[in-house]
Amino acid sequence: MGQGRQRSGVPLPEQWGDLPGTASRQARGASGAAAPRGAASPRTIGVVAPFLSGAFWGPVLIGIHEAAQHRGHRTLVLRGTPSEVQAPSLGREQVDGWIVIIEFDGLSELARAGVPFITLGARPADIDCPAVLPDNHGGVRSAVLHLIEHGHRRIAFVGNFAAYDVRERRDAYKDTLAEAGIPFDPALVIPCDNNMYSGGRAVAPELLARLPGCTAAVFGTDKNALGMMSALKAAGVRLPEDFAIIGFDDVAEAQSADPPLTTVRQRFEMMGSAACELILTMIAGERFPAGGVRTANALIQRSSCGCNVIQNFLDATASPAPEEDAEDAVARQMVELLILPRPLPPDTPPTDVWPAVTRVVDMYFSVLRGGAPAPAAELERAYRQAVDITPDLGALLATARLLGQLPERRGAPLDAAARRRVEDFLELARLAIARARLAAETQYVHQLGVLARTNYEVSFTLLGGTQQEYRSLSWLETTTVVWGCLALWEDPAARAGLVVAGAYSCDGSPVPPDGSRCRLEAFPPAEMLPPSATDGTYSVFLLPIRSAQRDWGILALVGPTIVAMTGDEGTVAIWGTLLGAALERDALVESLSAQHVDLQKAYASERALSETVRELGCPLIPLLPGVLLVPLIGMIDGGRAQQVLEKVAEGVSRHEALCVLLDLTGVPFVDAQVAHSLGMTSRAAAMLGARVYLVGVRPDIARSLVDVDLGALATFSSLSAALRELAPARGRSLKARRGAR
After folding, report:
1. Looking at the chain, which terminus has fewer C-beta neighbours within 10 angstroms, N or C?
2. In angstroms, rounded to a whole number, what is the distance separating the alpha carbons of residues 223 and 201?
3. 613 within some domain
């Protein structure tokens, strides 16, 4: 799950600048003070991203959309690279400026179009344009210096150097070592194949080979670090006692790792917001920094580097004096425990972050002074709010530890009764924390179940339903998508125009009719988009639909964030894959049906041809009255021999023939099997009153028949010889037959 403000499943820690619960109030205050910039002339910001969800992509898109929405503008998000989505052609008539995230294939075409554009997350090597980047140098510098403060000198760097960001982080690592007077050792720079867990695991043997001389490492990404941590622990390396690790990104899993991962927190949503500000400035024709902007980050200290942040905070917490300020001071300290390592700004009330914190503190002091026991249900409700701020069980339990240490830190020892009341309250608080955390986990599991059922229903419709069912987009009813349109390329090779194959609307907004055509530059049809898209409330997402064999078209969706629409990350990509597979399946079925028709026609034609060939393979020619000529050409196998027998018997009966001449002149070879078949033909003809003669017996055929019993078969060397012999005799036989009548 990506980190963000969405409350889907187990709540996730904030990873950008705003404190939990304060951003929306600040935004409302700002919008109340002045009209959003550009409200009189709304613009559409086009975003090109290869992915739409994930620890990086999701928050960046949220930041772009929220910043645009706050200023009265719209966002059109295209999944893919500039080349894959044909930017700037696709949506040209709607988009005023482009933000291209990390993947730049086809960016030169966008640059030549003359439309304002910037990049985010990386800077293209061959195109000069503004870019929004994290402060990679400052982040890695703080990580390396922190490890040096812990006493480490042999520090490695691990990362995928194909990534622009990681190369910048590697260079910052080298610069910081030089700043600290530590010689750079190239052997401690370990490249890996990707930015994911597998990349870190794969190079674990290389890092293990450098132990124990190397005692710490900075990683290009958290996922590389987490993959490495599992491999090191499997090899018996103790973290952080034997080896210290710092990552970069602060993904959700960093906090729950064992040990929790110290990392450089990127403010992904802030990057998106900064990109929105920059492109709007360019669209408005205002001055902008030519090189772009860098967004700040922060070192988040956890346990993998050797720190114990919570204990250090508790040890450093001053006694909350004077007495009249004690409750507010304790509330502030409890909130700071939940948002470590960030302090709570002096002008921010703790209730802005945790509304129920003062009630928890009130209940504690009431019990301390001899009041009634705290209501368990109210305490649990309060800690459910705390779980919304951080899922870190250690930080949550530390709030109870803080309360338990108050009497000692204030130098006011408790009598036995008061100590018992406080212990009972703390036990109740720990139980409330456990129940609140369990409730969050239960809700998360429930949402996973709903997600699994929804995905099953959608998958069943896309893969098992009819063409009408999946093209109508009715399967979107189980999601929070408010409008959708599936358009297929009119000519997949040219990819210039689209034909609407299906559309969906849950709010009564108009949809384009099936079969209607739309130019690439005007898709999706602006006049058909729902109000929630035209006013910027929701983003418009364009998903290219492809299969292994073909580029099919585009699915347009209008709705909240991708995670809110689909229930998790990656599901929208699965939709696209399944939809492409369904289109591919139907195309294959149609192709197979057409081929089946063609095969049936070919089979019928072949059967007719076969019958013709059959007739030609054993023709019956009435040569003379009472004489049939059967010229045979080609090889004679068992099937053809049977055909000869049948045709001769039929011909003798039909023509009342007395002589049948089997002409073997065109037969290349006669063996015993063929001779046997010819003998059977002779006997069948004899039973009908006719005699069979072999004509055209060549010397080679004669030699092959020396040892074959031909029975009553007579032979002639040629047809002319047979006619000379048979013509007079045939005349006498016919006269005798007439006289007998």
Report:
1. C
2. 10
3. no
Q: Whole-angstrom Cα distance, residue 297 to residue 657?
A: 108
CATH of the domain at 230: 3.40.50.2300
Name the DSSP letter for residue 351: G
What's the total number of domains in the chain? 4
Return the HEC string of 652-672. Answer: HHHHCCCEEEEEEEECCCCCH
The verdict on residue 598 lying in a domain is: no
pLDDT at 218: 98
Per the CB < 8 A criterion, the answer to whether 29 and 360 are in contact is no
**pLDDT tens across 324-379, in order?**
568 889 999 999 999 887 889 999 999 999 999 999 999 999 998 888 888 999 99
691 shares a domain with 730: yes
Better-scored residue on pLDDT, 1 or 480: 480
The DSSP result for 224-235, as a single string, is: HHHHHHHHHHHT
Task: Show the tokens assigned to 105.
Answer: 């294939």
User: Do 262 and 164 belong together in one domain?
Assistant: yes
d(CA 333, CA 395): 12
Structural domain boundaries enclosing 374: 327-443
Record the pTM.
0.72
Burial of 326 (0-12, 13-18, 19+ CB in 10 A): middle
Residue 317 lies in a domain: no
Please report where in the chains the tokens 């090189």 appear, as a residue. Answer: 291
Task: Judge whether 26 lies within some domain.
Answer: no
| Two structure tokens written together for 146 | 């922190």
Q: How far apart are CA 644 and CA 38, in angstroms?
A: 94
Same domain, 274 and 187: yes
Residues 142 and 246 in one domain: yes
Please state, in angstroms and rounded to a whole number, the distance separating the CA atoms of residues 270 and 66: 10
Neighbour order of strands in the sheet with 551-559: 292-295, 131-134, 117-120, 97-101, 44-49, 74-79, 539-546, 551-559, 483-489, 497-505, 517-519
Backbone angle region of 54, left / alpha / beta, with phi > 0 → left and psi within -120 to 50 → alpha: left
Average pLDDT value over all residues in the chain: 85
Q: Which residue has the higher pLDDT, 12 or 545?
A: 545
State residue 427's pLDDT score. Answer: 95
pLDDT at 343: 85
Say yes or no: 532 and 561 in one domain.
yes
| 200 and 219 Cβ atoms separated by less than 8 Å | yes
Determine how β-strand 539-546 pairs with β-strand 551-559.
Answer: antiparallel
Same domain? For 121 and 138 the reply is no
CATH number of 693's domain: 3.30.750.24
Report the distance separating Cα 47 and Cα 335, nearest Å: 37
Are residues 293 and 187 part of one domain?
yes
Q: Which amino acid is at 493?
A: A
Q: How many whole angstroms separate alpha carbon 89 and alpha carbon 77?
A: 14
The candidate with the shortest Cα–Cα distance to 340, out of 371, 368, 367, 317, is 317
From 427, 443, 459, give the residue that closes a domain.
Answer: 443
Percentage of residues in the chain having pLDDT higher than 90: 45
Helix then strand then coil, % of the chain, to nearest 5: 50, 15, 35
Those residues whose C-beta lies under 8 Å from the C-beta of residue 275, and which sit 6 or more positions away, are: 60, 63, 64, 99, 118, 120, 132
The residue that leads in pLDDT, 436 or 727, is 436
Which helix (H) or strand (E) element contains residue 271?
Answer: helix 268-283
> What pLDDT score does 230 carry?
95
Span 580-617, pLDDT tens digits: 999 988 888 888 999 999 999 998 888 888 777 666 77
- The runs of H, that is alpha helices, within 92-163 are 107-112, 136-149
Helix axes 57-70, 23-33, angle to 10 degrees: 20
